[in-house]
Amino acid sequence: MISPFPSGEGLNVRTTCAYCGVGCGVLATRTGDRTATIAGDPDHPANFGKLCSKGTHLGETIGLEGRLLHPMIGTRQTSWDDALDHVAQRFAATIAEYGPDSVAFYASGQMLTEDYYVANKLMKGFIGTANIDTNSRLCMASAVAAHVRAFGEDVVPCSYDDLDAADLIVLVGSNTAWCHPVIWQRIEAARAARGTKLVVIDPRRTETAERADLHLAIAPDSDVALFTGLLAHMRDSWRLDGKALAERVSVPDGFWKTLPNPDVARVCDIAPADLQAFYDLFADHPHTITLFSQGVNQSTSGTDKANAIINLHLATGRIGMPGAGPFSITGQPNAMGGREVGGLASTLAVHMGFSEAERDRAQRFWQSPTICSRPGLKAVDMFEAMAKGRIKAVWIMATNPAVSMPDARMARVALANCPFVVVSDCIAETDTLRFAQVKLPALGWGEKDGTVTNSERRVSRQRGFLPRPGEARADWWAIAEVAQRMGFAGFDYRSAASVFREFAAQTGFENDGARLLDISDHAAITNAAYDAMTPFQWGGASPFAERAFLTPDGKARLVPVVHAPRDDASRAYSLRLNTGRYRDQWHTMTRTGLSPKLSQHRREPLVEVHPDTAQRLGLADGALARVETPHGASIFRVAITPDQRRRELFVPIHWTDQTSAGGRAGLLPGKDRDPVSGQPGFKNTPARAGSYKPGWTGFLVSRARPSGLDCAYWTRIRTAHGWLIELAGEGDPAALTALLPAGERAEMIDARRGVVRAAVVADGRLEAALFVSRGADLPPRDWLLDQLGVPNAASFEVLAGRPATPAADRGPIVCVCFDVGLNSLLAAITRHRLVSVEAVGAALHAGTNCGSCRPAIAKLLPVQESVHV
To answer: How does DSSP classify residue 791?
Structure first.
């Protein structure tokens, strides 16, 4: 039986995935107090039952380990009444002394729309400041700014169905196979069904790029040159849509003179033949979708990049028809919902700006005592204001800016300097919570109730199917309680449904078609209807198919953009650093890090480097390297790969102080940002790298999570039976035995060679094993990890690091869903002469569940099968 409503064990509850902006529907079935089985919802139009590896393993992340369960003031557990009174009093006193702009909210795309709405209303309409911004500023703000410049409103003009109808799909700055795997599966299906061509534009040869008909490994931040060059080619070859330009597009004087004449191939650092191949593919396929993501947005020229893409589609008439359009795909599950309510400091509410008429309209709707007079501080500016003492109180919700902000060291200085920091989170220990004077326990994914909006403007219900743990409460409730304690009326909400009704009503209030965002037909929705809500898409599948754009004259605008090369390279920092996500991890791993399955794909933070660059820098594969920028430094494990461009590095964003002493990508990018959107550039930072040669290296396997880790480099991940901790540092390696738990110990220590091997057994079961060496003679990890907790563990085998009868080494995990390793795949491909991903799936099941590993499997196949034709 399937029900939309939360209930007891054995009943499927329709909800929405907690991760990316695809917005996949999920069926969650409780199997115990804190356990559930997870499946894709076959009826949800975003995914039709498919889930990626992260969504598939959501059930491994819903336990109570590490949860914040009670309000805290300082180190003291307190009641909600005391905590909320304290927050209200401190915010009110700060405002009374320093004015409304002395306080701020920093929100998150992890919040539900209802949470966002109440926070935005409180700040802009009652406190009277627009100092509310969100971590969406770090991922999608440039797309928002580009939409507004071109269309007059932040409207994504495409739908997922357009992928099914496209003849050409261009992926720009998007490793879709890893970051939006369900969309990738849809692209694969379209290619199989109709022969859709695929172009991938990315400096890295990712697994997505491996499967493309054409991969353009352009130089970082050369996208504007590429797309303005293509637009010039379309003009010069008489391929523009004159009718669309005349009837639907406003072209500013002198626009065509801004198009480049220089050698685009040289600027982009690609072969002229590849550039011409891209031009020809675009010219020959009018039904083109250009899907762009963080590689476009996270740039100091991100807004211009997005407008260069939009300009191309507008001028060629490739918008407002099936299978065509510029498609910005969001990174977080509710980045779009935050944009809708006004959760960015640069918008007022429900897609309104800060004109006098719009401010008056919002104030009258809210019946508020005041209204903010201007845009607020964007994320980086907000933290700079904290560092300089201008912001005296901040409330941070569902995000970890001490890790994720650019120049994270300075973000920590800002938090330390802020007199009053409130953090709402469901996790008890994060890098940001260390700075909080008040900690408020929030609901986690399986407990939340509200709505989210995905990348195609589709609103879905997120439903709690687990009981609220401890004293955790909804974020909208906590904000509303503080608002009432500050003396503000209009916050007496009784449910998420009552918040949604008000939000829906505001979208239609005095709208009269001026804004496309209008869901006011839901303003009178009953609680029962809200509980039973099915997904709906505002704006329709193709918003500009039959209606005008949201500008005063109803025409879209071409926006002049010019490639501006960065001039911050120096002899001291001659490399370029790119940062991004791994396939099976999410943000700062507070959730995915709980999953043993998801932790196996990439066990450590790797710096990926081209073989030629590695040789020049003296880096060895599998060794350690110190990566440094003008803003900070961190240590990473080296992965040498020809998939990187020369003189460029790539590192992942996920590791934090809670999981590693190295791999801190957030310390490395600077605060340079796009002048229009305020979005920081995470993809092109001047850097340098060199070998880090520790005195010793080692690892610890342990059933219990060890504490007291203190060495130059360590990383900690969850495994099926415990923990794996990689170690490297200086000094006496024998001192590391202090990390071992109590129990019967067997050990072998060779002080002269710096070798330490020790095992601890309790009640006949292996509790932990430590291996350290000044050389490179460390055993494989997997067999030892499997021995944790095994009865009658043989100490001599454990100290040897291998069983008396060695088992086959399956190699690094490629397919997380079925635990299939690289060596197992290669052996099966060779033995059975497998020549397709489908054949591998039939033999080993790999790639047959979430499909996230299919590009990796394809890369292992014979050459004729590894590239789609």
So the answer is: B
